[in-house]
UniProtKB/TrEMBL annotation, chain A:
The keyword Magnesium does not apply. Coiled coil: none annotated. This is ABC transporter permease. GO terms for cellular component: plasma membrane. PANTHER family: INTEGRAL MEMBRANE PROTEIN-RELATED, MEMBRANE PROTEIN. The chain crosses the membrane at residues 20-38, 108-130, 151-179, 199-223, 235-255, 283-305. Keywords: Membrane, Transmembrane, Transmembrane helix. The keyword Nucleotide-binding does not apply. One of its GO terms (molecular function) is ABC-type transporter activity.
UniProtKB/TrEMBL annotation, chain B:
GO terms for molecular function: ATP binding; ATP hydrolysis activity. InterPro entries: AAA+_ATPase, ABC_transporter-like_ATP-bd, ABC_transporter-like_CS, P-loop_NTPase. Belongs to the ABC transporter superfamily. The keyword Disulfide bond does not apply. The keyword Nucleotide-binding applies. Residues 4-232 form the ABC transporter domain. Keywords: ATP-binding, Nucleotide-binding, Transport. It holds the Pfam family ABC_tran. The gene is yhcH. This is ABC transporter ATP-binding protein YhcH. PANTHER family: ABC TRANSPORTER, ATP-BINDING PROTEIN.
Amino acid sequence: MNLLIQNENLKIYKRKRTWILIAIVALFVLLQIINLHTSGSPAASEDWRAQLEQENSWLTEETSAPDALNIEIRQAEKQLLLNQYHLDHGIPPQQSAWNFAVDQVGNVVFAISLIAIIIAGEIVAAEFASGTIKLLLTRSASRTKIYCAKYIASILFGLALALLGLLLSILFGSLIFGFGGLDHSYLYVSDSAVGEIPLLQALLGSYLFHLPFMVLTVTLAFMISAAFRSTTFSIVISLLASVAGFVIAIAMNGWDWTRYFVFSHTDLTPYIWGDPPVGEVSLAYALVFVLIHLAVMHLVSYTAFVKRDVT
Amino acid sequence: MPLLQIQDLTKKIGKKILVDHLTLEMDKGEILGLLGPNGAGKTTTIRMLVGLISKSEGQVLINGLDTSQHFEQAMAQVGVIVEQPDLYKYLSGYDNLILFSRMSKGVTRQRIDEIVQWVGLAHSIRDKVSSYSLGMRQRLGLAVALMHKPLLLLLDEPTNGLDPAGIRELREHLKLLARQQDVGIVISSHLMSEMEMMCDRVAILQKGKLVGVQRVSDMVQDEHAQVRFEVDRPDLAVQLLQSLLSGEQIDVEQEQLRVRIPKNRIPEISQKLLDAGISVYGVTTIKRTLEDKYIEITGGEPH
């Protein structure tokens, strides 16, 4: 089994295209930080109080706008509380590599998921397209083992990309902000109150709790790849579903029906802060909901992969 | 125990029967050909043997192991080439071998080097497969199929697309394997001359059914032979032959007579012709080829 996974890894990493995809992830992180740097972060200048107050009044205006979305109001309210916290406690808002990394987790995981979809979407289908499936399935390894090896390799690739994204956002962040600041606390809002947790904990927690998105989208691409044996089909459909799911989950954040929408449960970070998007939804509920989706997808693709004739 | 036992192997898709209760056995060191027109079920049969296509009915035993129940153990003793050997083009030949060696037990680096030498790819094994010619790919496919020292080799239309030199090379390799290493080989093809040169036995399939199994040596060393006598007075010769061979059909074509007689009567009959004052310019035995047999068995349906 181990050897089969090694084989899949060899097939992934010995392709030039994989490295182009990895380079895209690096480029994405770099763009994020350039974007942040050029748009003028609230650096700890002398007049940070004035800046925050100005931002607060602007935010208050926004929340009272008649066409404001649920999510906009929530975000604005959180920012207001955070800014107020800074003002009340006399802590100037400080940007560090670590802060940057925590704030970027959601974006990074979203981006690496889209890249991982491309690999997962062809890991089975490409074997059919190239005809290599005939050799692969006529060695002394059962189809079940090959299926599992391929799935594990897809998830591992996603995890590797996530780790790369994490390290790069810290590295690129430190080029601008320096490595310092890890001893600061990360501020978050829960139940209309501001809490503090250690930055490292916030960073690792955020990564871990964002990963369900990657697992779900990779599994979707893998399912279509294994069941329908078409690379294009699986990549296009999963990309569309992932982007749509991601956007809808954000736009519809807080609506009651989203408790039955799987993409609303792929970002579990609110549970770190103790601030679930929909009331009465627990972490366990969210996890089980995602797991059921994964199980159903595997049921479809595993059956198709193991039973169907290779002609 | 036979190396390969096929019992009542059947494939149905809906109402269509692609392979119909095929029963066949073969031993170590034997080269068995599956011959038949396109659509006779050769490819389906081979793919069922290796588990690419599920069986509707029947059983396949490889070295006594049922492929449905002990797929992994059974396949450990089998090497397969299905049509063109499709390998990973973006990897080097060597990486391809490493990849497949990990899927079989006991294939060492040493063994890989050995098999690379044997198929004659030592110079290009580090190059990407995308740069290989079709013949080289076929050789690499053979290396993949043989690296784990299988007892049974299954080849589906392996000569498709190969040039004459490639076909000849493959034939030599396969014969060596069967004679020296006692590997049993099943090979499907619709090219009869090729099968005649390569195989010990030929199983002829038609519309999914096994219609005959022929030992190639039997066909070549048939006791009866078509014999052509070239004479100066055919009318007289016909009368004489008719009296000698009561009931046999005699074809006359200008000055040539064609009869089917046991080989050992050729000297006697020649002598009789000469004694009757007929000049004999030539006596030729016409070999019955696999093609004749094939046409005879399949009822002359062209492939």
